[in-house]
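Dear Dr. H.,

I hope your travels went smoothly. While you were away I took the liberty of generating a structure for the chain from your last submission, since the lab meeting agenda had it listed for discussion. I wanted you to have the full record in hand beforehand rather than looking at slides cold. The sequence, exactly as received, is reproduced here:
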Amino acid sequence: MRKLKEIARLRFEAKRSYSEIAAAAGVARSTVQLALVRMAAAGLGWPWPEGEDEASIEARLYGRAFTGEAWRATQSGAAVLPDFAAMRTELARKGVTRRLLWREYREREAQGLEYSQFCELYRRWLKTQDVVMRFEHAPGDKLFVDYAGLTIGITDRYSGEVSPAQVFVAALGYSSYTYVEAVATQQVPDWIGAHVRALEFFGGVPQAIVIDNLKSGVARTHRYEPDLNPSYQDFAAHYGVAILPTRVMSPRDKATVENAVLVAERWILAPLRDRVFFSVAEANAAIAPLRASLNRAAFQKREDCRETIFHDHERATLAALPQWPYQYGRWSKAKVHLDYHIEHERRYYSVPHALVGKTLDVRASDRAIEIYYRGKRVAAHLRAQAKGQFTTEAAHRPEGHRHVIELNHERLLHQAEAIGEATAAVIRAQSHRRVHRDQTLRSSMGILRLARDHGAAQLEAACQQALALKTFSYRSIVNLLKCPPRQSAPVAAPIEHGNLRGADYFAQAEVSSC
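The corresponding predicted structure, in token form, is as follows:
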């Protein structure tokens, strides 16, 4: 459903072609076409109706048999092809775009090609005319990003060890206006953080970002169906931008950023080659003025400079930045336990009690924990600081909560009594270890589960030792099972023998001597 949402957004809001949507969503082009036909048959556009959950949307799209008549209808009929040679001449004129030429074409041919087919056939025609295809970039259309091959050394003040900092480069397709920044690594947090700062530098959002197939952006490379990293896809949805991975081993797909990287290495990295930096922030402070000089330098084969073209023609075409910048978050899955809490990094967060037993998606940022079920956010909490801490929202508690909890404790106590008296005593002791008694369910369930892993007899013996040591936590029981305490050697009984005098003899001898 997340990919269907992305397909709908990119088609109806961003006005992207089928091929671009397929690359951004990580699906086949035919899948995009079929999904849009289903949406049309179900009367869905974008945005999807508010208040309607994913289950009902799925039922509308897939709940009934799809005959494919609409799909065959879109493929039937022979369309009159446009004059591609004339198109090429018109596109060389300032302000003329393929979409404008397509609209004029459809005014002449009402049953003509759709826009995506129009562009695809033109691209194919271009390949037959030129050995190397030249990409035509509209203002605000694409941002190309990549890492430079060269790095910047960061020196440790105390040890003198030098570690390489990566150099992130982003360039707009139309103006070639370039952003350069040093980051510590190519990992996902640094990768997305550099994107956020680049968009703030440009002051807006392009329609698409073209990336290479590095792991931080693409989780699984594929010529037709690459899968984006979930956090990177989340970033794209936050800014309303399409992500277009290039083909593997196809540098011409991102020639703009390849050239930008080359220029950045000559204008920025080469002049800094002998400088010593003690932090990434210090390196970026040195990069900033050189980056400004690069963008103000005049083109050799083009009028003006990057900065002038950007501010005069491209800045206004960028979409507005969202109110808040994107915060990186890691995605994971967690199952809702009997106490309607999920566990994340040994901290516990409540969700609506009706979701007990379900597996939910968890997004963890630096400050918050967001919990989703079938694409809908069901809970959000500030990150807990201490391990073992419970964060519970009152609205998540069920009615008759205490009665339900009492029944659960009673059931667990019956299981413990079946194992032995010591195990039952340890389970009873759990209720005194937590502020809320329902929080003891997790520890009690964990202790009883040990009987299945180690045997009831071993668990009973470990609980007897725990009672003697007055330690009742789950981890203590586990440690006692793995490393039981050694039995102390019994004290030897005194030896009685006629030849042994004993202490009384020496006491009497001392008295007689006096």
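Two observations you may find useful: Residues 214 and 221 are 9 Å apart (CA to CA). Confidence is low (pLDDT under 50) at residues 64-78, 130-134.

With kind regards,
E. W.
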